[in-house]
Specification:
Order of helices and strands: HHHEEHHHHEEEHHEEHHHHEEH
Number of helices: 14
Largest sheet: 3 strands, antiparallel
Strand content: 5-15%
Radius of gyration: 20 Å
Strand order of the largest sheet: 5-6-7
Helix content: 40-55%
Distance between the termini: 31 Å
Number of strands: 9
Bound molecules: glycine
């Protein structure tokens, strides 16, 4: 029996899959989820590699797995999921698969037409570098940082998220739209400075974070999705939404990106203002009246038909992962308790799919973009990615081990 299967015994028994022996030190919730993930992600990887091609699964709808091209913003998450499977099981077969899926993204290091390359390359090459020190991965990260830096706009002091003359974004009359999601791309810039010694990337990341902190948030610390800047004067032209219910609403995943992104900035810079800010946004998310008891938010805190609105498991997974990191910096037990609560909720049949279903994705019930009519109440590859990340973080926090 291979080592992964061997250590899955009790968990498999708990899920009715098979009988095997328990790992002595792993918490039952993690053990059980890893056992399920070995089956589900294994099935998804097999489908993605059918016929020798390497395809990138993004969601499952109408009974079929949907695949995306390499330049889609979600293209790095499946490679990252495979790296996390390697980390959670220690089984080298996951690392080999992860490497194949990672290197499929090679050309993305030169992509300059949108900002999401941080997600795409950090969650794939970043993990490959961290876990295996694979040759050339450092160069890919630095080149990607150079590509992302071409989108930095000196006058407003931000990285422009989307081109203002392309696709549906081109119909909104924006000049320099910045979305809160962009905070998630900064981790790659910080890493690129560490790898190259070039402080330009670090300075761009800090300027972007500072301007975002100043402009993206309301009094209650909920955030806008989009802030559009004037490229000539640097002033804010408009605050609005693209994927939320309304310009003045709190789109759930955007809030989670803010919590996670500012926590990352604190890790990279040691500047306490970022952590304080992440805490304020987390407190909004966790304690707003629209947050359900199980701590899996509705897709938008101001959606009009709560509690009949779709939930967004992806927001919950991102928030849980960030809360574990915040707990390590603040020692506030409530953050860990809330993160645990989210993982427990996501591990119930209400959110986690039965083995053999859901196309192989772990979680059900995420929302891509309701205003665009896309990916509503479906599995999403980034929900699974952050769910596995949060499980890893939980394990490390409980073992008193460093997260990174
Ligand atoms: N970055 C796009 C999203 O969160 O849907």
């Amino acid at each position: 029996m291979n080592p992964t299967l061997k250590c899955m015994t009790v968990a498999l028994a708990a899920t009715g899959l098979a009988a095997c022996a328990p790992s002595s030190r792993r918490a039952a919730l993690i053990e059980e989820n890893v056992a399920v993930a070995v089956q589900q992600i294994g099935m998804l990887a097999d489908s993605s590699e059918l016929g020798g091609a390497i395809r990138i699964p993004s969601t499952y709808k109408n009974g079929a797995i949907a695949y995306v091209p390499t330049d889609d913003w979600v293209s790095g998450f499946f490679a990252g999921t495979l790296w996390y499977m390697y980390e959670l099981t220690g089984d080298e077969q996951w690392a080999l698969r992860a490497q194949k899926h990672t290197e499929q993204l090679d050309s993305i290091q030169y992509l300059q037409w949108h900002h999401d390359v941080g997600f795409m390359i950090y969650d794939s090459y970043g993990h490959g570098l961290r876990l295996k020190q694979l040759p050339g991965y450092d160069r890919v990260i630095v080149q990607t940082a150079k590509s992302l830096s071409t989108r930095f706009r000196e006058v407003p002091g931000v990285i422009q998220s989307w081109d203002a003359d392309r696709g549906w974004q081109g119909e909104r009359g924006w000049q320099c739209p910045v979305i809160i999601d962009n905070m998630m791309n900064l981790e790659l810039l910080f890493k690129a400075t560490e790898l190259s010694g070039d402080s330009t990337f670090y300075r761009i990341a800090v300027r972007h974070a500072d301007r975002t902190l100043a402009e993206h948030f309301r009094e209650d610390c909920s955030c806008y999705h989009v802030v559009d800047y004037d490229l000539t004067t640097g002033e804010v032209r408009r605050r609005c939404t693209a994927q939320g219910y309304a310009d003045e609403s709190a789109w759930a995943r955007g809030q989670a990106w803010a919590v996670y992104g500012f926590t990352t900035c604190y890790r990279a810079t040691g500047d306490r203002k970022y952590l304080d800010h992440a805490e304020r946004v987390a407190d909004f998310m966790l304690h707003d009246a629209a947050m359900p008891e199980d701590l899996v938010p509705y897709w938008d805190y101001d959606a009009p038909n709560i509690p009949e609105e779709p939930r967004d498991a992806s927001s919950a997974a991102v928030l849980a992962s960030a809360l574990y990191e915040m707990y390590t910096y603040t020692d506030k037990a409530a953050y860990k308790q809330d993160a645990d609560r989210i993982l427990e909720s996501l591990s119930t049949p209400a959110f986690r799919a039965p083995v053999g279903e859901n196309g192989g994705f772990l979680l059900m019930h995420s929302v891509g973009s309701i205003p665009h009519g896309s990916s509503i109440d479906v599995p999403l590859n980034y929900a699974d990615y952050y769910f596995l990340e949060a499980l890893l973080r939980k394990e490390r926090v409980e073992a008193d081990e460093p997260l990174f």
